[in-house]
Amino acid sequence: MAQRAQPIALRLAAGAAALAVVALVFGTLAAVALRAESGARLISADWAAARFTVFQAALSALISAALAVPVARALSRRRFFGRRALILALGAPFILPVIVAVFGLLAVFGRNGLLNLALETLGTPVVDELGRQGILLAGHVFQLPLFDLYGIQGVLLAHVFFNLPLATRLLLQGWQRIPAESFRLAASLSLNDRQQFRVIELPMLRATLPGVLVVVFLLCLTSFAVVLTLGGGPRATTIELAIYQAFRFDFDLGRAALLALIQVGIGLGAALLALAVGQRAAGQGLDRVVLRWDGRGWRRYTDALLLLLTALFIGLPLAMTAIRGWAGLSGLSVGLWAAVLRSVLVALGATALTLLLALPLALRIGAASARPGARLVEALGTLSIAASPLVLGTGLFLILNPFLDPMAWALPLTAVVNALMALPFALRALVPAATEAQRRFDRLSESLNLPAGTRLRHVLLPRLRAPLGFALGLTAALSAGDLGVVALFADPNRATLPMEMYRLMGAYRNDEAAAAALLLVALAFGLFWVFERIGRHADT
Amino acid sequence: MLTLERLHLRQGDFTLDADLGVGAGARVAVLGPSGAGKSTLLMAIGGYLAPDSGRVLWDGQDITGLPPGDRPLTTLFQDINLFPHLTVFQNVALGISPRMRPTAEQSRRIGAALAEVGLAGLGQRLPRDLSGGQQSRVALARALLRARPLLLLDEPFSALGPALKTEMLGVLEEVLDRTRATLLMVTHDPADARAICPQTITVLDGVAAAPEDTAALLADPPAALRAYLGTP
């Protein structure tokens, strides 16, 4: 069989992009490994961090998935006003800057949050014999504050906040894949709800849930900003945080490198697990409603309550951020605007780099002639979900330190790492469209002998415009809100907006922090919106 | 003159052999049951499939190794002959200006070609705003402009209704008259062959036979073809 020739220029570009990615990933890894060998010792706290990393990720995955099952089921069988909006809102936490989410969660569940406040006003204040403040409510004395986010409970809550919506969307896709005929058949056989669940929905869950669990587990494994803000201490430190502390506070590069190796080991193990499970995420058409006959009677009310609680869980922290932020906007310092500018530059840099890497790679992966190689590249994309920005950062520091001052190059380095972290998501969005465009139009392009430039400009780019806009918007938003590798390098005088916000929160300047949060949300969603918009305007 | 010299293709269990010649300016139908290898034959001539052995010659020159766009031919596929996001004008322009920067003279010729196939004034439309027949006309206008000596048609009109198909065969004949091109047209309908192809290649059981006189062939088909045609 013949191979369809892809323009040489495109192959070269894809090769260069792949080489750049591999060099960055393995180069930094090699640097880390070399440095780790030279006699650093782990302390027992580091092993505790390793255990906690896996433990919190596993628990986050289990809780998110367990809650997502009833929520997705309710969403799949109900039609109501605002359903589309709710499904859209479920996508929002993915691009919401982590530090903003933490701020919003603190405003609802924190010491001085909405929930504590509400309970305090409901009960009677009391003071026990040790002088501790409490609240008398329904015959019990509760110690104040009732809710405190700092510690593992906060880490888990934040991870569930981010991943319950993701898991719900993934499971909803599973429900959508069940053919409508199955539900019709179940109704004609007058199966009750439980029987229908067992016969139709359980098999789907059995196929879908492992993938969902693995994805959430992977994402939580490398979660840094959440643990930085809500965790810490001997009982809630992850390896990522330990790397940061070894690097930033102890400046013990050997130990940081050794920790980085452990993180890589755990990530690699989990990624291999992910490859074995082989879940394919992302997809569209979630607003389709299948006509169903189950879930009548009281279940309508439990479904409604469940969906309402989900909407509140996602919406309240954001609303609180907006309300508090709006009030603080007037008191913003000039320095914050400089931080905004730096964040925009980092985001745009990362976006440009992602475009350069993802576009040729996606086209190459999508090319009919590239099958075996394409598998490898796709696998690498999955592996990089487990890659850690802190490890990349440590490696880059070790490589660059002899030649230049990494602190002075903090922002470009951040852009590079951000681009790399966004690459798997960009590829997920682009590869299906790239495959389809080339499958359909390569033969015609060849028959007309179109040169590579024409093919790219007039054939492929117009077909890829929508997913490209989405992928770049995602990259820009994630990069603008990133509080990861930038925390490793940046000095306070050249902080990005998320760093500045973290600093304000640490200094208990809550009004300013709220205003910064609002700006940051506007920035992240604004960037996403602009790029997505450009992509949508394709006239296909 | 197109020559297929002991051409042999294999795809899994399927094989196709062809050892035949087609005279310059001939109009030849490629007839046979589906799955027999009609399209495969055309794709091999067009350069979209590489043969396992044998050669494809045009006027004595070996073109077996040439990429599709460099061969002296234009192909009209069964589907996807137009880029859906490009206008009619742009789609035709790609035929003579691959960088899509037609000169004033080229633009004039594109307009003329569109008028020739009955699409005057529709240059700025997108393919989706055209009927199926009109879309075929766009592809024919491009073939007219490219004016390559060999035209390969892989059932491009099979999705059209009978009246529209007759109409398109008329347009096709005009294009052939203008370009003096040799035609190879895959079809599963003997009526198409009768209408515009004096000669017919039958593809049966993985073997493409040399062109025969269409009228004689259809009047007294060999047994295997008879089974396909349903004639007693």
CATH 4th-level superfamily of the largest domain in chain A: MetI-like
What is the multimeric organization of the chains shown? heterodimer
Low-confidence runs of chain B (pLDDT<50, min 5 residues)? none
Q: What is the average per-residue confidence, as pLDDT of chain B, rounded to a whole number?
A: 91
Key features of this structure:
heterodimer; A: 540 residues; mainly alpha; MetI-like fold; 3-stranded antiparallel beta sheet; 2% strand; globular; B: 232 residues; alpha/beta; Rossmann fold; 11-stranded mixed beta sheet; 8 helices
Outline of the structure:
The complex is a heterodimer of chains A (540) and B (232). Chain A is an all-alpha fold and 540 residues long.
Explain the overall architecture.
- The complex is a heterodimer of chains A (540) and B (232).
- Chain A has 540 residues and is an all-alpha fold.
- Chain A folds into two domains: 7-39 and 334-540, MetI-like fold (Orthogonal Bundle), CATH 1.10.3720; 40-78 and 149-321, Orthogonal Bundle (MetI-like fold).
- Chain A has helices at 8-37, 44-77, 83-95, 98-109, 114-122, 152-177, 180-188, 193-221, 225-230, 239-248, 253-277, 299-328, 334-366, 371-383, 389-400, 410-447, 452-480, 485-489, 497-506, 510-536; strands at residues 124-127, 133-137, 140-143.
- In chain A, helix 2 (44-77) packs parallel to helix 6, helix 4 packs across helix 12 (299-328) and helix 8 (193-221) runs antiparallel to helix 11.
- Mean pLDDT of chain A is 85; it is low at 279-285.
- Chain B has helices at residues 38-46, 88-93, 104-116, 132-146, 162-179, 190-196, 214-219, 223-229; strands at residues 2-11, 14-22, 27-31, 53-58, 61-62, 73-76, 150-154, 182-187, 199-204, 207-208, 212-213.
- In chain B, strand 1 and strand 2 (14-22) form a beta hairpin.
- The A-B interface holds A 1-2, 4-5, 440-441, 443-444, 446-451, 453-454, 458-459, 462-463, 538-540 and B 11, 46-50, 67-70, 74-75, 77, 80-86, 90, 94-95, 98-100, 126.
